[in-house]
Design brief:
Helix content is 25%, strand content 28%. It is α/β, with parallel strands linked by helices. The chain starts with a strand and ends with a strand.
Length: 343
């Protein structure tokens, strides 16, 4: 079968790989759609991120959906021909964190397309994927395979919502309107946010933010004062989802959060300087959010029920053989939000 394999920075190849054997409790899936994620782009552009480096060829990808083509022994909850979204979260369910319900913090996580360990954990950008049946969530009739493949990044933002707490009646700030920021807007709206203001430095992504539910957008590269106006009377927002990983966005958010509000950090970045006195004086809670687990099923349920529409975020679909062009397009924020491969 064909797969998308990264060998080093800017060395991405579509090549033949061996298909995994089908075992008990597993299903074979013909992958049809796969979304290119920020981590995939880090491997493609830089050969890794932080101290994590590509040390051997690795199949990329973890945002996938397809059709069940074969069933292993003992599988009863799925049938041949079922369309499924596949969760890439494969915790051990035996370590100290799994046993207290924190599977996203698993000590032995086997998350698709990860170079954190050697041998690397191979990804899901391949024509045939063998997965555990419990990873697979059925897609409703009428839901496009492309929208189903966005369940994974949507689950990331649903976990962020759970970290923030109830959003009913809350005023929400989202900084950074790439795919995760835009999905955070959709998730916040679905969970009862009263008002959502989004910021970025690029107008193209801000237009997408408006399309998916933001009440107001601010281009902080052109009008930083427009955001600063929300700092009056100790702040305006109840919750800040920071999706850019930019230190200035964190600081700006703290200035416009009101006392006893919550900042949830979604974006990954380097070390940042935080105005500690402001955090203390306004009693702000700062929370991290990492991946997801049970939220994947919720993401698929919300998509299946038509309670969210992720389709406006899909800006390009490339055939498998054009994987390099797809990755180049995905890295161009001026023209792309979510780019997918068609298998």
């Amino acid at each position: 079968m064909k797969a998308v394999v990264i060998h080093a920075a800017k060395d991405l190849r579509v090549e033949d790989t061996e298909q995994d054997a089908l075992g008990p409790g597993q299903v074979e899936i013909a992958i049809e759609a796969g979304g290119i994620c920020g981590s995939d782009l880090h491997y493609y552009n830089h050969g890794g991120f932080g101290t994590i480096r590509i040390r051997e060829p690795m199949v990329l990808g973890h945002e996938v959906a397809g059709t069940v083509r074969a069933l292993g022994g003992g599988v009863s909850r799925l049938s041949l021909g079922d369309r499924v979204a596949v969760s890439p979260s494969r915790p051990c369910n035996a370590c100290a964190y799994c046993l207290v319900g924190q599977q996203n913090q698993c000590l032995n996580m086997r998350f698709y397309g990860s170079a954190m360990v050697v041998p690397h954990i191979q990804g899901a950008f391949r024509q045939r994927l063998v997965a555990e049946d419990w990873q697979c969530h059925k897609i409703a009739d009428g839901v496009s395979i492309n929208q189903a493949a966005m369940a994974e990044p949507f689950a990331v933002t649903l976990h962020a919502i759970s970290r923030a707490g109830s959003l009913i009646g809350k005023r929400v700030l989202v900084t950074g309107c790439g795919p995760i920021g835009a999905l955070a807007i959709i998730a916040a709206k679905a969970h009862g946010a009263r008002e959502i203001v989004a910021t970025d430095v690029m107008q193209a992504v801000l237009d997408k933010a408006l399309a998916v539910g933001a009440d107001r957008v601010i281009n902080v590269a052109e009008s930083l004062d427009a955001l600063a106006a929300y700092s009056a009377n100790k702040g305006y927002f109840d919750v800040h989802f920071e999706a850019s990983g930019n230190g200035q966005a964190v600081r700006s958010g703290l200035e416009v959060l009101k006392p006893r509000s919550v900042l949830v950090q979604l974006g990954l970045g380097g070390d940042v300087s935080i105005p500690q006195n402001m955090v203390v004086a306004k009693e702000i809670e700062m929370k991290g959010t990492f991946r997801f687990h049970e939220e994947f099923g919720l993401a698929v349920d919300l998509i299946n029920a038509g309670r969210v529409d992720l389709a406006p975020l899909l800006t390009g679909i490339f055939p498998l053989e054009d994987a390099v062009a797809a990755f180049e397009a995905a890295g161009d924020r001026s023209r792309s939000m979510k780019v997918q491969l068609a298998f």
